[in-house]
Amino acid sequence: MVQRLALVLCLQLWPSYSYSEPYSYGTTGNAASGSLSWGMSSVFPSITGLDVNGLLYRYTTIKNRKDNMKVHVGNKNPNGVGYLFRETDDWSGVDGNTIVKYFPLANIPSSKWGDGSIEVEGTGSVTNATVIYNYRINECYNPQANELCAGYVKPVPVVPVVEIYNATEDEDVAAAIDTEIEFEYDSDGNIILEDEEEEKDTRLEMGLIASANALTLFKNAGQADIIMSINLETDLAAYYNSSIGGGVYNDNNILTDSNLPDNSRALRNNFAQQLLHDKMINMQYNK
């Protein structure tokens, strides 16, 4: 019943704001659900542009009427010195009971809220503590977060830089191009080679000649072997002595009647076709 009363009171005391862009609103969970002290990093959502516009707390005290007791609810400054918000309830000389309070705030940025706590001064204790923060989020705190925000700049895609290799700027290539080889020429315009280079050319020519001769010899030998193999495969001597079994097969068909009569039915059929043909011809000439 007390929790329902707290929620109803929170709604009634909620400040009247326009819920149009660029703001959205929300509430935190119970910051004092685990203990009577809490860090705000675990209470607020990790969103930029968040301001606190209200605070509600509720708790129950357990004490004797005669005992002196005060309860302090507050949030320190981010540096831990002093308080950004602090409310004190004096329970001295009264029985233990449940209290609910709500405080509208002027949109204090979340970065200014330090650690929160419920502290007991005197004799007594606190149970069933609830601390809830109301907040609003400026959706256009970062204009680039939404293209509908004022100051939004359409992102320009990053164009990759492609490095084009220029061979003429390569030091190694330039050095190779600049290398000049000087040759001496004879009266006929032929390059005069040094003795060592002439010796290399001579060895190369001899090697090529030897290779050509070896290939020629191998070619002749290979052709002779191929011809011999073909002759062995085409030896017909083995077929000369072969014989095929068989004999003489006489004709056993005998024609008993050598006089074949005319087919009278075929004759009549031919005659009828001739008459029909003549009739068609006469019809063509209207006869």
Task: Please describe what this structure looks like.
The structure is a single chain. The chain is α+β, with helices and mostly antiparallel strands and 287 residues long. It has a domain of 143 residues. Helix content is 29%, strand content 25%. The strands form 3 sheets. It has a 4-stranded antiparallel sheet, with helices on one face. The longest helix is centred in the last third of the chain and has 39 residues. The radius of gyration is 59 Å and the shape is elongated. About 5% of the residues have low confidence.
What attributes does this structure have?
elongated; four-stranded antiparallel beta sheet; 287 residues; alpha+beta
Brief overview:
It is built from 5 helices and 10 strands.
Structural class: alpha+beta
Cα(first) to Cα(last) distance is: 127 Å
Strand content: 25-35%
Number of helices: 5
Mean pLDDT: 79
Give, in order, the helices and strands.
HEEEEEEEEHEEHHH
Helix fraction, binned, reads: 25-40%
Radius of gyration over all CA atoms, rounded:
59 Å
- Major beta sheet summary: 4 strands, antiparallel
Order of strands, widest sheet: 1-8-3-6
SSE inventory with pairings:
Layout (H helix, E strand, L loop, with lengths): L1 H12 L9 E5 L9 E2 L11 E13 L6 E8 L6 E8 L7 E12 L6 E7 L2 E14 L32 H8 L5 E2 L5 E2 L2 H39 L3 H4 L23 H21 L3
Antiparallel strand pairs: 1-8, 2-7, 3-6, 3-8, 4-5, 4-7, 9-10
